[in-house]
Each structure stands twice: as structure tokens, then as C-alpha cells.
Amino acid sequence: MSTPFYVSPQQAMADRAEYARKGIARGRSLVVLQYADGIVFVGENPSRALHKFSEIYDRIGFAAAGKYNEYENLRIGGVRYADLRGYTYDRDDVTARGLANVYAQTLGTIFSSAAEKPYEVELVVAEVGETPEGDQIYRLPHDGSIVDEHGSVAVGGNAEQISGYLDQRHEDGMSLAAALKLAVQALSREPNGGEREIPAERLEVAVLDRTRPQQRKFKRIVGRQLARLLEADGAASAPTDAPSDEEEGEE
Q: pTM for this structure?
């Protein structure tokens, strides 16, 4: 009788982490940045039907990089959690921190379980506050840990290089146009140091806009509004707010 092959727990967890990281690295990167009136989500996404960014609740947005079917299951679970908690208690009891804790438990359980493969996803959960100081951004890697971010965060294939670029250039109080331009510039960076052009039709952009009078602060930016923001002078952009409901369809 042969001796069973032994793998130490440390090596097994390291292998699972490497497997998840490689899967995430194959996906396109995305960035989440704070600007003067809220939080903007920007990513390269040629699909018009499969979204990287979604609304979870009134003031909470969700972004994900990695395998679509896996993060879509997590998104749906987050929506159900938020709806149930808001209905059972109060809408103000639904917070990004609580949602991040739920996602962390789910991802951590899957990552440590030998019965199933780890999820190849990296999540960002963001909540816009009444003021910039009240904004919350949480990054959740594949292992279920929670990283409290401020200012900007990047996830996906080239996240480390993009994060370094954003850290050097992002400033508090930026206009939406300036933040959007910075995000596109960061996403255009190649691992070899070069740059490429990302056309507007390949961009997915959404915002959590604290100035919106509606209870729901999430809004997608598409079409003419996106083109105007990309063409605007970042220092003095007039149309920095999200598009009106009459101009673009409400999410």
C-alpha cells in the first residue's frame, strides 16, 4: 500500500491563493475613486449587457473583477441581504461595512474549504456619505480579508501598477470630469510602461452621487454625458454631475 501524498496546510493555502490570483489577473482592471460629489466607478468593459458595477442599495455600489458568474452570484446575494435587512429593520441599517462583512465571511469560507475551489474574484463595496468624510470604500480580495481604502482603489489584472499611478495623482475634491480622466489614464497604462487608447464605447462608468435628490444615489454614465465628461477640461468642467433622468435611463 503506497503512502498518501502529503501537502502541508500552508502549502495548500498558498496554492489556492495563487490559483485565485491568476484567475483575477486574467480579467480587466477597474478603478474606484472619490471625487468632490461622490464616488466614481470606471472600468474597461466591451459588453453592454454584462456589468462590472451595480447598485446594491440606496447609497451602496458594487464593483468586481474576475469570473463573471462568481461575482454575479455574490452581487445577487448582497442585494438580497440588503433588501431583507432594510425591510426588517430600517433602510439606514444597510451599510457598506455590514455588506463587506457578509462578503468577507462568504469568501473566507469558500477559500478555506477544501471541498470547492476558491472564487476568482476581487470585490469593491462603496457607500457614499453626506460628506466626503463619510464615504466608505472596502476592497475584498479572494481570501475574504477586508481592506479599508481611501481616495482610490484598483482591482483586476494590472491593479498594482494602476494603484501606484493613482496614489501619485489622485487628489481630494476633484471634479467628476477630472477623476474620470485620471481613471482612464490609469487604466490605459500597460504593464511594460506604455499606454494605449481606450475608446469611450469600451468604458463602463457609474457614480454614487451624493447631490442627487433621489434616495438612490447610483447612476450609470453613458452616451453623450460620458463623451462630454471625457472631452471636458478637468479643471473647470461644467457638466460634472451625473446625467439627468430625462437624458439617460435610470438604473
A: 0.87
